[in-house]
Amino acid sequence: MTNSLQTKSKLTEIEKIVGANIRIARRIRGLTLQELGAIVSVTGQQVQKYEAGLNKIPLEKLITIAKCLKFDMEFFLKKFEI
Predict the structure, then answer these.
(1) What is the pLDDT of residues 34-51, one digit of tens each?
(2) Which of 5, 19, 43, 44 is a Cys-bridge partner for 34, taking CB atoms 3.0 to 4.6 Å apart?
């Protein structure tokens, strides 16, 4: 049971890191939640959930987001200290 909880915790942390980096990249490019959502075929609310780390981001969507925002995939996996 501990391993299951540890795995879930790690996934949550990863989703939060990726989500925070999507938010940073989106703001750098000057896009709204709705604009990015339209580009990747989801709602602005869904983008907001990705950014908050509440929903897992399908790899295909993350690749599309990276291309659209013109950032390398590695950018979204880095943990930045603010």
Answers:
(1) 999 999 999 999 999 999
(2) 44
